[in-house]
Amino acid sequence: MVDFHRLVIPVIIILVVGGTASFFLAYGFYPKKNVNINVGGACYEFLGSAFTEYKNLDTQKRMSILKAQYNAIEPPNALIPIIFSGTKNEITEFTDKYDIKIVEEQQVGDMNNKNNYIDKYIVKAMIAKPYFKQILNALTLQDFNPSTKTIQGSIGIQPNPFLTLEEGNEISIDTNNVMKRGIQQMIEDNYDGIKQAECRSS
């Protein structure tokens, strides 16, 4: 259950906890087909095209978060700590293209156990601000789609001295409000695939 009254959490924390990257990997393997949303005490289920549009709104929010975090980092050549996930080849191509320096790399699964081997890694790294801008400028909705997701669509910014807790809170509030307005507009327009649902505790 998505409750917009409880989503004001610093986005810096949301995007960088190690478990978050694992969650997005799992989401890619087992994509959901619906979401239940609580807006102002009324609950709705988004299915079909409504769920697709909800995912687009959520992706736009994630892209807005990254852009807002980037804009809050003032030094023009700052080194930004990031986290992302991908296959070994994807990581090599990605890090070479954007001159990314890997700090820590963790494999998903056990490479010594062929029954539990997954060619997927979670990486913590550093990237210069101008290169990060190039990544942002090239991002599209398809980069975040579970069926077409790219390594760029997994990127997040880690906690760093350039972003204060207050700035993180402001970014969280602003982006959540934009998404909430988009969802409310869908409900008001009777968007296809939206139906009223029973409110369930999360």
Describe the 3D structure.
It is a single chain. Strand 5 (101-109) and strand 6 form a beta hairpin. The protein has one domain. The longest helix is centred in the first third of the chain and has 25 residues, at 48-72. The model is unreliable at 7-30 (pLDDT under 50). Helix content is 43%, strand content 24%. By secondary structure, the protein is an alpha+beta fold. The strands form 2 sheets. The protein has a 4-stranded mixed β-sheet with strand order 1-2-3-8. A 4-stranded antiparallel β-sheet has the order 5-6-4-7.
The total count of helices amounts to: 6
Number of strands: 8
Shape: globular
Q: Rg from C-alpha positions?
A: 18 Å
The amount of helix comes to 40-55%
Largest beta sheet: strand ordering:
1-2-3-8
Number of domains: 1
Q: Percent of residues in beta strands?
A: 15-25%
What is the residue-averaged pLDDT? 85
The separation of the N and C termini measures 6 Å
Structural class: alpha+beta
Order of helices and strands: EHHEEHEHEEHEHE
Low-confidence stretches: 7-30
The biggest sheet, with number of strands, parallel, antiparallel or mixed sense and barrel status, is: 4 strands, mixed
